[in-house]
Every structure is written in C-alpha cells, then in structure tokens.
Amino acid sequence: MVLESTIICVDNSDYMRNGDFLPTRLQAQQDAVSLICHSKIRSNPENNVGLLTLANRPEVLTTLTTDVGKLLSKLHQVQPKGYISLCTGIRVAHLALKHRQGKHHKMRIVIFVGSPIDDDDKEIVKLAKKFKKEKVCVDMVNFGEDAANTDKLTLFINTLNGKDGSGSHLVTVPPGPHLSDALVSSPVVQGEDGSGAVGIGGMGFEFGVDPNEDPELALALRVSMEEQRQRQEEEARRNVSATTNEQQTGQPAADEQAVAMSLATESNTTTASPAVPDFSAMTEEEQIAYAMQMSLQQTLLSSKVNVK
C-alpha cells in the first residue's frame, strides 16, 4: 500500500455560500473532504492528513495527523470569507508537507477549487514545474466555477504530470445534490493503487461516520454541526438587526458608519499583520523557517484557546 502524507486545501471563499451544490458549496465540500480523510486513513493506518483553508491569507487548520475526529472537528468550524489565493495556498501546503515526520511518505496535495482563479498562467506553470521536480502529486477538484477555471487547472495538472506522468489528477464535477458521490469512484478517493475506497461504506451515514462503530465521534460531529448552525443563525439575526437600525436612523447614521469604517481602515493599515512573503524569492532555508514560525504561532494560539 502507498504511504502518503496529504494536505487538503479547502476553498472557503464567499462563493461557498452558493446553493448549486446542496445544501451549499461549503457544506457539500465538507462532506467530500470527510470522505477523502476517511479513505486516506483507512487505505493505510500510517497515512496522515492535514487541513488548510485558501481564502484571504491561507491558514493551516490542522497539521498532519491520523486523528480523523480532529480533522473533521476543525473542518466543520470553517466559515466562508473573502477570495481564494490558490498559488499561495499551494505553497503553504507544500511547506507543511516538508515537515512531515514520515520522510518516506509520498507528498500529495488535494485542492478544492470552487471560486474564480486570478493567478497568472506563468505563475501556475512555474509552480507546477517546481512540484514535478520535487515529486509532489496534486489532485484538484474543480466545481462550481468550472467554466472559468478548467483551462488554468488543466494547464497546472498537465505541466505537473508531463508527457508520461499520471500521479496527479483533475476531477471536474458538475452541479448536483452530492459532491462526495462524484468523487467516490474518482482517482482522488481511489488512490494510485485503488485501495482508497476500502471501508468507506459508512459514507451513507450522517457526517460519514457509522454511529454504531464510533458513537463518540458521531456525537462530537453532531454537536460541532449544531454549534455551527447556531453561529450562522446568530450572524443572520445580527445582520437583520443592523439593517433595521440603519433604516431607522437614516442618512446621519450612514455617514457616521462611513467615517468609522474609514478610520478603521486607516487603523488597520498601520497595524496590519505581515503579508504572506514571496515564496519564489525565498531560499529553501527561509521557506522552512517561515513554515516553522507558522507552526509555532498555531501552537501558541491553540494553547490560548485551551486555557480559555
């Protein structure tokens, strides 16, 4: 069986609110990511998986782990925001893979793309050539905006595979009720040796987990989803309340809000967090140092959350 370390890149842009995949693109994507996580771990217990979000500044949600419960818990906390930064996200995923404990593991990145891609073709080709040289495989799930993205994603995969390669794949999924159903028989789930689909019969259960096999995990995921629904409902109520207040107070309140937003923007400009560095201009040592810094920051944030 193939030993792999896999980083799954989740598209969490504002486009994920669309309902052409039921119930929304984001929730359909969460089910599909759950399917892939299960298939990777069940195909080989030594495989490990990590999660990364692509919108705005790419963020590593979970470093490489074999704990599916941890992966799914983080996955169901993801909220839509902003726009994706595809090439930057792929580079961050690559850096996370470089820190895998099993150095004999093959490196693979699975990327969900459901938003328009703004990356330049030259940058896409350059990144694909680098991955080909470093033997990094990439699977791309193209959905939602396939008319706009297919050419760019095909260019990336074809450049990465070369004339004789076949380790990387592009799967384009048309709108439908279940994104995960379209992936079950695809190379993304089946894997190179076809072992990835072993034991995924539980995907018919809620959250992809048979409660008879793992009742604690099923309960944890159910609670996580309920908390997510409550947050979404509370956010919707706040938006309705804000809209009502704005209509009642009229133009003066709108002017005050505009001034406040302007001041906030100016303040944010002076205190903004450092931008994502240009990885193409960094040496490998600088890239590794940056990745280690990210890991330390994530550990510190997790510790603060646990203390609270």
From TrEMBL:
GO terms for molecular function: polyubiquitin modification-dependent protein binding. It holds the Pfam family VWA_2. Residues 225-238 have a biased composition (Basic and acidic residues). One of its GO terms (cellular component) is nucleus. InterPro entries: PSMD4, UIM_dom, VWF_A, vWFA_dom_sf. SUPFAM superfamilies: vWA-like. The keyword Lipid biosynthesis does not apply. Residues 240-251 have a biased composition (Polar residues). Residues 225-258 are annotated as: Disordered. GO terms for biological process: proteasome-mediated ubiquitin-dependent protein catabolic process. Belongs to the proteasome subunit S5A family. This is 26S proteasome non-ATPase regulatory subunit 4. It comes from Larinioides sclopetarius.
